[in-house]
Amino acid sequence: MGRRASEAVHRLRRDSRRLRATDPALTGRLLLSHAVAVALLAADYAARTIRLRRLVGAAGGSIGRFDALSVNAWADLGAALTPMRIGGEPARLAGLRLARVPLGASVTALAAEVATAAPITVLIGALLVQLFGVVWWRTAGATVMGGGRLYLISLVAAILVAVLAYRAGRGRRPTVPTRSAGLTWGLAATCASCAAINVACRVAILPVLVWGSGASVHLGVVTLGAFVMIFGQLLTPVPAGAGVVDAAYLAGGAGVTDVGILLAWRGYTTVFGALLGAGLAAFRFPVRAAGRWVLGGLAELLGRRRGVLGDEAIEDRAPCAAQGGPESPLGQPDS
């Protein structure tokens, strides 16, 4: 069964290469699709940067454009390296603190961002399910049922972890000083618009790449499959950018069998953000912070060493002080 599937994928890739070689228009459409994907990615980062700056400003802090872009990219790096994308928010909070945003303003801004983005994401997901859910289920039914046990176990485990975390946090008073986020209707509308742009741009990248490849796949099914793979990681421990899992899921669930498309899609949605976050973090935040930590550690070490040497000197001079010698600063001066 696996051999037949690999042979089918090989034939599809071979036919796709032949078609591109004989059809210059398809090559142009492929290049155009990648250009559109880059534009979608740029629009996504621009919207997220604007949203973060507005929320931090409303919470009483301030952050520049470059710092806001770096914080979002660093969050992508943390999310890509952790299951369920759980490392994104801690990385973002650390980035805000390194950008000298007060802790209260940082926590308030991030909480307001989640509060405004979650409803928009749910609404877009519900709309996609309403439009393409039936077709997607017919296409993805075998794949979903085949991996149903693992999916169900992952979902139950995620729910149990969430319930235990909630119960462990009950009764604890917050120790972080928070303030009103100043979330006016205008700011809420801006954040909702930025969240919609973020979700739409992320989800649209895969359908655009599939359209550029000329593959005969239902774009609605591809769109819903992309949404599930991107935002389903918030509910179940799906690896972010593992490649093999993505290819197997989308090949059965969305009909995308071109490995090049899948690699390009993950490159745009995961690898690019991780590389950008690593580069900007090394350039802006950790280098400067690490420099301060190293210098502070050296200063503390030298200070301790001087203190030890001083104590040894005092101990060496103690006998002179006991004898009342003139050279001891602890002795009485000669009259």
Précis, in short:
The chain has eleven helices and no strands. It is an all-alpha fold and 335 residues long.
- What general form does the structure show? globular
Helix/sheet category: mainly alpha
The percent of residues in helical segments reads over 70%
Number of structurally distinct domains: 2
Low-confidence stretches: 147-152, 173-180, 236-245, 325-335
Topology as a string of helices (H) and strands (E): HHHHHHHHHHH
Spatial extent as radius of gyration:
28 Å
Instruction: Output mean pLDDT.
Output: 72
Number of helices: 11
What profile does the largest beta sheet have? none
The total strand number stands at 0
Strand content: under 5%
CA-to-CA gap between the ends?
106 Å
Name a few traits of the molecule.
0% strand, disordered C terminus, mainly alpha, 11 helices, 2 domains, 335 residues
Description:
The chain is about 80% helix and about 0% strand. The chain is an all-alpha fold and about 325 residues long. It folds into 2 domains: about 25-170 and about 180-280, no CATH class; about 285-325. Helix 3 (about 65-80) packs across helix 10 (about 260-285). The longest helix is centred in the middle third of the chain and has 44 residues, at about 105-145. It is globular, with a radius of gyration of 28 Å. The N and C termini lie far apart (about 105 Å). The model is unreliable at about 145-150, about 175-180, about 235-245 and about 325-335 (pLDDT under 50).
List the helices and strands and how they pair.
Elements: H1 2-22, H2 24-58, H3 65-80, H4 88-98, H5 103-146, H6 148-169, H7 185-213, H8 219-231, H9 244-253, H10 259-284, H11 286-323
